[in-house]
Amino acid sequence: MIDIHSHLLPNIDDGSPSLAASLDLAQQAVADGVTHVLMTPHHMNEKYENPKASVIAATAAFQAELDANEIPLTVFPSQEIRLTRGLLDELAAGELLGADENAKYLLIEFPDNVVPDYAGQYFYELQRLGHTPIIAHPERNTAIINNPELLKDLLKQGALAQLTASSYVGTFGTMVAEFAEQLVAANWVNFVVSDAHVLPGRKYEMTAALQKLGSQRAAEYEANAKAAVNGTPIKRAPMAASLTKPSLFKRLFSK
Ligand SMILES: [Fe+2]
């Protein structure tokens, strides 16, 4: 199993606070059936700056620790890049890492609970330059929960989206889980990932999520993760025109 979103590198963002915690998370990943993990520390998110060279060095050092501790996990350098007005400059400066070596696929997170009004314009420009944005955890963004069309428009324009395994199996509560289920059913997400941090109640739940997806979608998502890491084309299942029902949030609060 390949996990294309994690915060396993020690001491560089809100993920793992120490090498010991990182090795512990790595062991959890292996126990969950994961063989390859992308290291995706936050970059440009106001609090954390993790430019390309430093992530590459930290990932190599972590791989050496994994090997020394005989933990059978292969790690690759990447980033979770905050969408800001500085994104295209950072790309031009060569400071961004993708899921693959040529940065064909870029993992993009939106500012908390917002979809910036320039997202469509910036995504268009990224794609014109040969980079496909992969939207991180749309199921936890309240702007998208309130108005799923915001996500749909970006997907129709060519972006991809990934679901956090914990969201899908219910760790973030019923509202997020139900919304995640709807996104899966509508083919509005293309991957399931751990987004592993060291947080109470957060653990590796990739196997549980894949089991819940059922064998066909699990195989599809696993193939997509492999294609992202290899920088090869990703098969997009046909998107439903809309979600089956308004989000639980809307149903509860629009009365
Ligand atoms: Fe993340």
From TrEMBL:
Its EC number is 3.1.3.48. Keywords: Hydrolase, Protein phosphatase. This is Tyrosine-protein phosphatase. GO terms for molecular function: manganese ion binding; protein tyrosine phosphatase activity. It catalyses: O-phospho-L-tyrosyl-[protein] + H2O = L-tyrosyl-[protein] + phosphate. Transmembrane segments: none annotated. It is an enzyme of class 3 (hydrolase). It holds the Pfam family CpsB_CapC. Belongs to the metallo-dependent hydrolases superfamily. CpsB/CapC family.
